[in-house]
What does this fold into?
Amino acid sequence: MAKISPQLQDQLMKLQQIQQQVELLVNQRMQLERESKEVERAISELDQLESADALVYKTIGAILIKADKDKVREELAERKETLEMRVKTISRQEERAKSDYESKRKTLQAALQQAKMGGTGEDFQEPM
It folds into this structure.
């Protein structure tokens, strides 16, 4: 990499940090969405049980315990609602981070182009 100014190096590091933050948020959102779908499937299975007194078990740590079907369904519904709220929150954070990334990327790209024309950033390749 050709020499670039310390300011541009700092901007590049910040851009990379934002990119890592976006990746982290995407992974968190995807994990929460998977968990929400699992809860949704569990609720669906509970709803398909015809008998009101059907045996239902839930996990607590490493063990299964007998539980009331309606209570388990209520707990799952609350969990799903919580997960959906977290997904929305993370999605908003993700969108803000993506917007911030794009804005900083454009600014850095313009600064690098300017530096290249000025001879201080020649042969620099953007890590995208």
Notes: The mean pLDDT is 89. The chain is about 75% helix and 10% strand. The longest strand covers residues 56-60.
